């Protein structure tokens, strides 16, 4: 049975970038040790892109950084520098939401899983992270 989705809100430190995301109140978040996530201390959860939306004129305050394969799009606020969300290499059809950038009060439980970004391909194949950017109906139809 699928978990009921709730609307979570969040954004960057200066509040120039604001968004909402639909996700369960109990989530799986990923602590990655790739060079970028490790330096930022990033812990994120992944949702299908359709469940994420920017609010107001947030897009005007966003810059993007890429490196390596340039698949991941690391977005950050032009004013305060915070990466509150990004498009991950593991789930280019999804959005990775920075756990610590959520407004308080809508999460009931967080399970943190390790993602070995230093050994990206091996971790990608073993972790099952790809399923987190798919709707449940998409997953069911492939099994």
Q: Can you tag this structure with a few keywords?
A:
single chain; 143 residues; mainly beta; 7-stranded mixed β-sheet; 3-stranded antiparallel β-sheet; 3 helices; 10 strands; globular
Q: Can you describe what's shown?
A:
This protein is mostly beta strands and 143 residues long. Helix content is 15%, strand content 38%. The protein has 3 helices and 10 strands; from the N terminus they run βββαβββββββαα. It has helices spanning 35-40, 120-127, 136-142, and strands at residues 5-11, 18-24, 26-32, 43-48, 52-54, 62-65, 73-77, 85-87, 94-98, 109-115. A 7-stranded mixed sheet has the order 6-7-8-9-4-3-10. A 3-stranded antiparallel sheet has the order 1-2-5, with no helix packed on it. The protein is globular and about 40 Å long. 31% of the residues are buried. Mean pLDDT is 88; it is low at 138-143.
Overall pLDDT confidence? 88
- Helices and strands: which structural class? mainly beta
End-to-end separation in angstroms reads: 16 Å
Main sheet specs: 7 strands, mixed
Number of E strands: 10
| Major sheet: arrangement of strands | 6-7-8-9-4-3-10
Shape: globular
**Percentage of residues assigned to helices:** 10-25%
Strand-helix topology:
Elements: E1 5-11, E2 18-24, E3 26-32, H1 35-40, E4 43-48, E5 52-54, E6 62-65, E7 73-77, E8 85-87, E9 94-98, E10 109-115, H2 120-127, H3 136-142
Parallel strand pairs: 3-10
Antiparallel strand pairs: 1-2, 2-5, 3-4, 4-9, 6-7, 7-8, 8-9
Summarize the model shown.
This protein is mainly β.
